Amino acid sequence: MEKLAVIKATLPYIRKFRKKTFVVKLGGEVVRDPENLEALTEDLSLLHNVGIDVVVVHGGGPQADEMLERLGMKPSYVNGRRITDDETLDVAKMVFSGKINLELVAGLRKGGADPVGLSGVDGGILTASRRAPKQLTDEATGKSREVDFGHVGDIEHVDPHLLHALLAQDYVPVLCSLACDAEGSILNINADTVATALAQAMKAEKLIVMTDVPGILRDRKDPTTLVSYLDTIELRQMVESGHITEGMRPKVEACLAAVENGVHRAHVIDGTKEHALLEEVFTNAGSGTMIVTRRETPQAAEAAAHA
Predict the structure, then answer these.
(1) Confidence of residue 1 (pLDDT cuts 50, 70, 90)
(2) Are 178 and 293 in the same domain?
(3) pLDDT (tens digit per residue) in 188-222
(4) Is the pLDDT higher at 99 or at 137?
(5) Are 194 and 143 found together in one domain?
(6) Do 151 and 32 share a domain, yes or no?
(7) Of 186, 202, 218, which residue is a domain's last?
(8) Closest C-alpha among 1, 14, 22 to residue 263
(9) Are residues 190 and 277 in the same domain?
(10) Average pLDDT over the chain, rounded to whole?
């Protein structure tokens, strides 16, 4: 009877989200472990099989760093931002479009979905331009210098037609964060940025960012300070006050950009926690942090939390 009660409790969410689009971004840190990757692909397949249109975007920074080191090269960063030189771009192509993408596609097939592995290059989904050198203060040295990020791109245009066509035929698109410019030069794009751009262009119901922390924390060192519900004003205040730092900042900026540009809800959840995705989507309490454009009345917020 307990199992029947769980199924009954999920039905309103299934009806609400059927044929709605979820863009789910998987950080490289949550797909490193084979067991965790298998659990994630099972949950993603379940979303697909109950009628939700799922688009998966993945990163792979930790895996690219590991491959560089195996090849005798050292990853290069300035203020936490990757420098993508010629060798690093070759590794990104191998790891992102090859190893990680293929493993996700295989896992989704095992879960009963029909996935299609892609990059932003395919079908002209993403057109980007190479990022110009920038004058930055190097946090490691305290000195200002011009930094050339190499083959790193900024998105200029999104064409979601191929993705819509695949979803219409009941496929699950799985995109790695590579794109190209108008001349066909391949560029490395931040995966959070890619997921946000796709969510906006596709008018997604949800952008779900899966990382290795519980969600947005008031104290990044204390998991018990998880904030489960925020509007954009509150979240920007947290950014400006210095509560959002390091690797969480681009994820937060991605969520803010999404909900401020037409995406109904954005979520940050722990992709290493078993079934956190299903808990976030199919329960009122959720498992991580939900971000909305404007906080509702307490009564409405209670009813809409994680909906």
Answers:
(1) low
(2) no
(3) 999 999 999 999 999 999 999 999 999 998 887 88
(4) 99
(5) yes
(6) yes
(7) 202
(8) 22
(9) no
(10) 90
pTM equals: 0.92
Give the closest residue to 177 by CA, choosing from 236, 128, 244, 215: 128
Among residues 157, 173, 202, which one ends one of the domains? 202
**Other CB atoms within 10 Å distance of the CB of residue 124:** 15
* Domain annotation covers residue 16: no
Residue 250: phi, psi to the nearest 5?
-60, -30
Burial profile 291-303: b = 16 or more Cβ within 10 angstroms, e = fewer: bbbeeeeeeeeee
Give the pairing type, strands 115-119 and 172-176. Answer: parallel
H/E/C letters for each residue in the chain?
CHHHHHHHHHHHHHHHHCCCEEEEEECHHHCCCHHHHHHHHHHHHHHHHCCCEEEEEECCHHHHHHHHHHCCCCCCEECCEECECHHHHHHHHHHHHHHHHHHHHHHHHHCCCCEEEEECCHHHCEEEEECCCEEEECCCCCCEEEECCECEEEEEEECCHHHHHHHHCCCEEEEECEEECCCCCEEECCHHHHHHHHHHHCCCCEEEEEECCCCCECCCCCHHHECCEEEHHHHHHHHHCCCCCCCHHHHHHHHHHHHCCCCCEEEEEECCCCCHHHHHHHCCCCCCEEEECCCCCHHHHHHHCCC
